């Protein structure tokens, strides 16, 4: 399994943690368009979180919000879910 798939990925330079729920990913790649330094698709077309320098946190949240199936979950470093918003 690639980084961030079905488990949270973190980055020492980022204020967020990211998880892609594999079963929900439909290979729309909107996350890759909005945050190309953070997301890519694996050989099966499932999004994963790249190693290295990520995009800014707000850009990552925008990328998650662009996902048509809400397959991307964003948390702050304290484990509070930022996206999707919890009621």
UniProtKB/TrEMBL annotation:
This is Ferredoxin. Coiled coil: none annotated. Gene3D superfamilies: 3.30.70.20. SUPFAM superfamilies: 4Fe-4S ferredoxins. Its cofactor is [4Fe-4S] cluster. The lineage of its organism: Bacteria, Katanobacteria. InterPro entries: ET_Ferredoxin. It holds the Pfam family Fer4_13.
